[in-house]
Amino acid sequence: MSAPLLAIRDLTVSFATRRGGHAFQAVSGVDLTVQSGEVHGVVGESGSGKSVTMLAVMQLLSQSATIAGSIMLDGQELTALSDRQMRKIRGARIGYIFQDPMTALNPLLTVGEQIAEAVRIHRGDVGHKHAVARAIDLLRLVAIPNPEKRANQYPHEFSGGMRQRAVIAMAMANEPDLLIADEPTTALDVTIQAQIMELLDQLRREKNIGIVLVTHDLGVVAGVAKSLSIMYAGRVVERGLVDDVFAAPHHPYTKGLLESLPQMDERVERLSAIAGAPPPISARPSGCPFHPRCPYVIERCRSERPVLRPVGPIDVACHRAEIVAADKGTLQDA
Ligand code: SF4
């Protein structure tokens, strides 16, 4: 079998405090694999380490960050590359879609100019005229109506959904192998959200690209991702095929995320089934980091950190995974 498109192994990212004191681990021992032509969801609350992991892949973390472990793209070790070598990978082999399209778009340039520029950064041999023609093709690819006219408009003339489509067009400018979409639909309403997810899935099918879909919303990965990793306090706590995890979550955190999803027959969103808030990076609890919020907690959980282990078709980091999976009641009943 060929090498996975993206293989992250035992990734740890630490940030030094300002005065060079104790370093805090934002991400610890993360393993993650993405194949070409598949969508892998990375799900967790804010501060879970999901975006830090993806910024480590892009080598876009601040100077205070230290990376340990391995990040391989199609068999090439990214952590060993120089800034210059990495600049050639970013935007060419890996496209990144940020949460807020306005941070990715320059309000002073037309959308067409910006996409053409993204084409020319990595392909100096392409002339201006051809780059503009390619920009129009890319706008067509992401289903922007009347792309010739739209290419001459500024970002403020686009709706929120159209802006996100333009950002996706820019990320696709050089036909990357891997697309990282970091909360790509958070700022959009539900209908537009569904359209953007459909667009990403269409690009995956047509171009055979691998997509990492980073989100706090488990509902977003349903229907589009094949596999997923759930992150909590800088670690992967559960991973497997989406169908297996949705059918029988083995970690109480995943169970809570699933129970918090609005149901088709409910008019209002459910309140979070998980009490409390994730711990700050500077004060992560001993043992299992989820123990202060976990209704299944036992004494062992407070002192012994659970490691990721296979339980049936799922990998899970919980001392009581078998009991959690077998429990058909809700988290509040536990
Ligand atoms: Fe809960 Fe213990 Fe499992 Fe952590 S290890 S999730 S505290 S049952």
Automatic annotation (TrEMBL):
Question: What membrane topology term does the record carry?
Answer: Peripheral membrane protein
Fetch the PANTHER family from UniProt.
DIPEPTIDE TRANSPORT ATP-BINDING PROTEIN DPPD (PTHR43297:SF2), OLIGOPEPTIDE TRANSPORT ATP-BINDING PROTEIN APPD (PTHR43297)
Classification via Gene3D superfamilies = P-loop containing nucleotide triphosphate hydrolases
Q: Give the protein's recorded name.
A: ABC transporter ATP-binding protein
Name a Pfam family for this protein: oligo_HPY
As for subcellular location, the record says:
Cell inner membrane
Domain (ABC transporter) ranges: 8-258
> What is the organism of origin for this protein?
Tianweitania aestuarii
User: Would you identify the family this protein belongs to, as annotated?
Assistant: Belongs to the ABC transporter superfamily.
Q: Which UniProt keywords apply?
A: ATP-binding, Cell membrane, Membrane, Nucleotide-binding, Transport
Work out whether the entry's keyword set contains Disulfide bond: no
Which SMART domains does the annotation name?
AAA
